[in-house]
Amino acid sequence: MKLTLQFKGTEELSRKLLQKNSTAWKNVANKSLAEMHNRGAHPPGTPVDSGELRLSRKTTKANPGKSFSGQFGYTKDYGPHVEYGHRTRGGGYVQGQYYLRNNVEAQRKIYRNDLLTELRR
């Protein structure tokens, strides 16, 4: 299952910085991806039972091209169930922990501020 999260409202800033200087955009994007990856390593970044979910963090660095994107996510197949919640065999429900959403929300403002800082240079 693939999870897709986007920073809404930063597309125009990203596009402007990419037009101005693709290296600066790449540095800002990769800094954000690295911060999200590192935030996931420490509590409360990723829920830990056996530690496999935390160890499955993967980051694909951003490269400017037709679509400017980089990726951060988890490769364990049960990641979405921990994120969004799930039913148990007995009919109960386990609430989602929203660890990835919280990480993205924390990074959203930082990413926007980094884009604005680079555009001002």
From TrEMBL:
<feature type="region of interest" description="Disordered">
    <location>
        <begin position="36"/>
        <end position="72"/>
    </location>
</feature>
<protein>
    <recommendedName>
        <fullName>HK97 gp10 family phage protein</fullName>
    </recommendedName>
</protein>
